Amino acid sequence: MTRLPEDYIAAEHELGAHNYKPIDVVLTRGEGVWLWDVDGNRYMDCLAAYSAVNQGHCHPKILAAMTEQAAKLTLTSRAFRNDQLALLYEDLARLTGAHKILPMNSGAEAVESAVKAVRKWGYEVKGVPAGKAEIIVCANNFHGRTLGIVGFSTDPVARTGFGPFAPGFRVVPFGDIDALEQAITPNTVAFLVEPIQGEAGILIPPAGYFTRARELCTQHNVTLILDEIQTGLGRTGKLLAEEHEGIEADVTLVGKALSGGFYPVSAVLSNSEVLGVLQPGEHGSTFGGNPLACAVARAALQVLVEEGMIENAERQGQRFIEGLRSIRSNAVRDVRGRGLMLAVELHPEAGGARAYCEVLREQGILAKDTHDHTIRIAPPLVITADEVDWALERFDTVLTTSK
Fold first, then answer.
1. Does 41 fall in a domain?
2. Is 176 a residue of the active site?
3. Is 396 a residue of the active site?
4. DSSP of 6-54, one letter per residue?
5. Is 35 within a domain?
6. pTM value?
7. Structural domain of residue 191, as residue ranges?
8. Where are the alpha helices (DSSP H) in 122-200?
9. CATH no. for residue 257?
10. Is 386 an annotated catalytic residue?
11. CB atoms near residue 324 (< 10 Å)
């Protein structure tokens, strides 16, 4: 029985929870930067699953690592050891300089794990009174959708109807170093922040912000936690976005592209002082650190580095942003980004970004709106110059003709 696109959509609508509002394209295949729907139409992926598919869809070397490992051993739980976990630790440590690593599954789990670890560090190492630990976060943050995380979100859509929430978080404006300094108290154990706020619309803080934030955290014995789940692993043209200001976080969170989109894998990267407070039984995950995940992640990291994807992100990102800025459109308010993490912000009177994304789909581009008036653009890091130019032609058409 042949199913039409509307059949898939109707079944999702009837049987699935309505916690997403996807663009109505039903995808069935992917390769590199390209996706195909069930009718055979081809699209350029300009979202890359929110940066989870940095290495491109169905990268053959990651696929080979996954199928090879899946035929041998997939899961043991951490009750026993496996022969892939130590190898992933070594690869991550060599690439990032991390001294201790905690493997998890989703990005949100990595965030929750970091929150637990730095609180315990605050009590056992810094000497914060029991139950008084505070973590500073930024307005318009996005760190995931779990109950603990939405409790310190400032997005009413994320928060409303889900309380009561856990205390212990202070919110400051993103990019405001004076506000950060004023928020620090003797009970502050961490500053949790995204190097670039992705969900908020690709917001980049002022130059020097993270240099000064690093200095403040060191001065006040506060752990700096950088959520690099979207910005990390090549997206901004560096392995980690912290490199743009030459700093080093105390805790770095990675996920998404850590598996190249094949499997949920995330990790907390830190040191012995922070992660060393966790003792057996205090934190865990049945699937975290499983051999299949580790083998996939090792291949994902290998191709990212060996195939020059990070450097390509810098080159093509510059080409992409220059092309977007050259488009003469009364609808465009701003074009911003770093590497291949880009955004086109529209004037409110131009209409919502969702409508533009729908027209882009008709032109063969899959992009995603965020915060009503911003089109987020983040293709896989394997995109070529010719493919960037192909995309720019279509962005030009849509931005200059759509109402």
1. no
2. no
3. no
4. HHHHHHHHHHS-------S--EEEEEBTEEEETT--EEEESSHHHHTTT
5. no
6. 0.97
7. 60-306
8. 147-150, 156-159, 177-183
9. 3.40.640.10
10. no
11. 24
